[in-house]
Amino acid sequence: MGKEESLATSSPLGAWFQLGVYKRNQGRMVRKTTFGVLFVIAMFGAWRLAESLLVQTGLSEYRYLIGGLVFAVGGWISYRLVNQPRFADFLISVEAELNKVSWPTRTELIRSAVVVIVMIFVLAFVLFFFDLLWQNVFTWLGVLQSPGTEN
Q: What's the CA dihedral at 148, 139, 122, 116 to 10 degrees?
């Protein structure tokens, strides 16, 4: 039984305390990116906790210690999460699907972006003129008051 298989067949709680990496050479980019995002979330959470401890409680002398512990635990949870067998298999399959995507070239991307931006402005002008039209129609019918007049 290999190391990867023993990680997959161990108890759910036991996988949190394993030191090995599950399927080390598969899905590396997606797993690194996911770990990085979770690590940054843990970092900002620890920072906000340390700031709130300074402002709201009398624990200001321990704020760096508590923030550092939260940061360390968050980093450890992030690392272990991307090595959980079920989650790691999901991330491996995500990377496999991303490799199947046919990404647009730079010129196709720019051309598509220009079309979207132009259409947004065209629709904004159309809606502006419809708004003016209906405002004038309802003012003429007496449903709305003329702009600038008061009761």
A: 90
